[in-house]
Amino acid sequence: MIVVGGEALIDLVPVAQPPGALLPRPGGGPYNTALALGRLGAEVAFCSRVSADGFGESLLAGLRAAGVDLSLVQRGPEPTTLAVPSLARDGSAAYEFYVEGTADRLFTLPQALPAGTRALALGTCSLALEPGASAYEALLRRESGRGLLTLLDPNIRPALIADPAAYRARFLGWLPYVSVLKLSEEDARWLGGRVSDWLDAGPSAVVLTRGAQGLTVRTREGAEHTAAARRVAVADTIGAGDTVNAALLRRLSDQAGGPVDWPGVLAYAAHAAALTCTRAGAEPPYAVELSG
Predict the structure, then answer these.
(1) Burial (Cβ within 10 Å: 0-12, 13-18, ≥19) of residue 279
(2) Angle 29-39/54-65 helices, nearest 10 degrees?
(3) Which residues pair with 217 in a beta bridge?
């Protein structure tokens, strides 16, 4: 079992017609990661707090359809978080958020994860917004101490971070509890650190996503591997990084206890992300689409 913790929200995605219209789509980095893992055939559970409103019901329906275990989902009467992406010509997205008083911010630490849990993934808005951020941090520390594989994707959203210096310091405090740090080049620039320093702080590997230049991993042992991005017609890049998270976890959990085939892992992640980019919104691929 892989557990993914963090927010589920609604992306209000701009559409061409009618002008100015916004299409509600399920989203949130952790939500997309859990959805992608389910579609890739992994045994996965989502750990979050989700609104009881109509948006919340639709979010859970999407996870159920992908076979995601919802036993760790907390519910609340507060509204669902909304995100409004603006798309650049290359399909990349910037976001504005509506987060005041929303359900996912009130997440509390669960007593235990399901028996047989092998990995935990955390990231994005859930680690920036209190009081839930402290609960997710406690979950990371507790489960790392139990020996789980942990993946952290900070997926920086500057609009949500009131005190960048404090967040950067907190990020460094997470690293001793992280097995794999995955982040984009943009995240790395915002955080202002170096991969070598992050590796010294705890993670066994740092995976850097580089858009059209593909993915690179550096390990604590000094190895470095790169996978080229696949050339596709890009609809947008929403959910591509989250799909990388899922693909990494899918392959790494299968290889737990043995040497990691990093070239194979990265190639699989690059393929999965490329398929996501061909579709509007966060629509990760199914396992059968990557089997060829």
Answers:
(1) middle
(2) 30
(3) 207, 225
Show the tokens assigned to 86: 């603006």
What phi, psi does 20 have (nearest 5°)?
A: 85, 0
Task: Please choose, from the candidates 242, 231, 255, 249, the residue with its C-alpha nearest in 3D space to the C-alpha of residue 284.
Answer: 242
Amino acid of residue 232: V
**152 Cβ contact list (under 8 Å, min separation 6):** 121, 122, 123, 140, 174, 175, 178, 180, 181, 182, 203
The answer for residues whose C-beta is within 8 angstroms of residue 107's C-beta and 6 or more apart is 48, 49, 74, 126, 132, 135, 136
For residue 200, what are its two tokens?
Answer: 């010294």
Enter the pTM of the model. Answer: 0.93
- From residue 213, how far is each of 156, 198, 208, 229, 231 by CA, in Å? 20, 22, 10, 6, 10
Write out the chain's pLDDT in tens, 292 residues. 999 999 999 988 877 778 878 889 899 999 999 999 999 999 999 999 999 999 999 999 999 999 999 999 999 999 999 988 776 666 566 778 999 999 999 999 999 999 999 999 999 899 999 999 999 999 999 999 999 999 999 999 998 999 999 999 999 999 999 999 999 999 999 999 899 999 999 999 999 998 888 999 999 999 999 998 788 877 777 788 899 999 999 999 887 677 889 999 999 999 998 888 788 777 888 888 887 5
**8 A C-beta contact, residue 218 and residue 205:** yes
Q: What is the side-by-side strand order in the sheet with 93-98?
A: 22-27, 9-14, 82-87, 93-98
Handedness of CA 228, 233, 237, 241 (dihedral sign): negative
